[in-house]
Write a structure and sequence with these properties.
- The chain is mainly α and about 325 residues long.
- Helices cover about 55% and strands about 5% of the residues.
- It contains eleven helices and six strands.
- The protein has a two-stranded antiparallel ribbon. The chain has a two-stranded antiparallel sheet with strand order 3-4.
């Protein structure tokens, strides 16, 4: 018995020597503590670390997960019980009680991050930008344009043979999502859908395909010699409505491209400029498509209108 006990003691001693030293849970920086408290107060599951800019899970996220993942998370509310080499004896009764509380489901619709009027571009580690900045003006216009194209597609009938305007509008709605990614994604090195769309959204081939459809639509219309008044059936009005929003979006996207050039970000400026070129051609497409949707063009002859007003003034003069 004594020999067996001695062998067990030697085995236990060797095992203890092989064990790594116990892990100490590092203190959380005061800035991170404040940022975490603010995020929890707003019901958020993540916050951006003030020092590194990395996204960090809050206690609410760990509660929703339901247990310790063993990855030494900063705000683990389970006392690191699954972290190898960490003593679970340090877990207090308060932490145990907090960990067993029923998790509250955070909303996936709203995050409250933009309630202060500022937001951060996807993948950016810089400071948040005001929501009235040029980049958000451009993104908002592109988003609005997508809605306008959907309305126009609803009122535009499908055609057999020739240029299918409705299909082009629906396809362009999807392309505008890529345009939004190009405008908002800063870090394009990832493998996600947003990063891929931001890298490869627009090229000359896409613009050339749009130009071919513009030429085909225009060839079927009578020559245009005057300005056109936006009136007619709903399809025509919806296409003109989308056209003017497209022009506004193009102006804001060009302004964003110029900002990037001034910041010496040539590659980003070139990608954004490609979006602006596409919008420029898209507005031409919407113009000729609106003409085609109109039963007859309602033209506005500038010179004739000026002469008419002059005659009316002369007739109104007392003799």
């Amino acid at each position: 018995m004594a020999a067996r006990a001695a062998r067990l003691a030697r085995t236990a001693a060797r095992t203890a020597r092989r064990q790594p030293p116990p892990i100490e849970r590092p203190p959380i920086p005061s800035e991170a503590v404040a940022a975490h408290a603010a995020a929890v107060a707003r019901g958020l599951q993540t916050y951006d670390d003030p020092a590194t800019g990395y996204t960090v899970f809050t206690e609410l996220a760990h509660r929703a997960r339901g247990g310790c993942c063993g990855r030494m998370c900063r705000h683990c509310c389970y006392g690191w019980r699954n972290v190898r080499g960490f003593s679970t004896e340090k877990t207090t009764e308060d932490v145990r009680a907090f960990a067993t509380e029923k998790p509250t489901r955070a909303s996936r619709v709203y995050t409250r991050k933009g309630d202060g009027g500022r937001a951060r571009l996807v993948g950016s580690r810089d400071a948040e930008t005001p929501k009235f900045a040029t980049v958000y003006e451009a993104v908002g216009d592109v988003d609005e344009l997508g809605v306008k194209l959907g309305i126009a597609a609803f009122h535009t009938p499908e055609v057999e043979g020739g240029v299918d305007v409705r299909s082009r509008l629906l396809k362009t709605q999807a392309l505008l999502l890529d345009a939004g990614a190009t405008l908002t994604v800063v870090d394009r090195s990832g493998d996600g859908a947003y990063a891929s769309a931001a890298r490869d959204a627009f090229d000359d081939a896409e613009i050339a395909a749009l130009e071919e459809e513009v030429d085909a639509l225009d060839a079927a219309l009578p020559p245009l010699k005057n300005f056109v008044v936006a009136t007619g059936p709903l399809a025509c009005l919806a296409l003109h409505d989308a056209r003017v929003v497209c022009r506004r979006a193009e102006r804001h996207v060009w302004r964003r491209a110029e900002e990037l050039r001034e910041e010496k970000l040539a590659d980003d400026a070139a990608r954004v400029a490609a979006v602006a070129k596409f919008l420029n051609r898209l507005s031409d497409y919407l113009f000729v498509a609106a003409r085609g949707a109109a039963a007859t063009d309602v033209v506005y002859d500038v010179s004739a209108n000026v002469r008419r007003r002059r005659r009316e003034k002369e007739d109104a003069k007392p003799e």
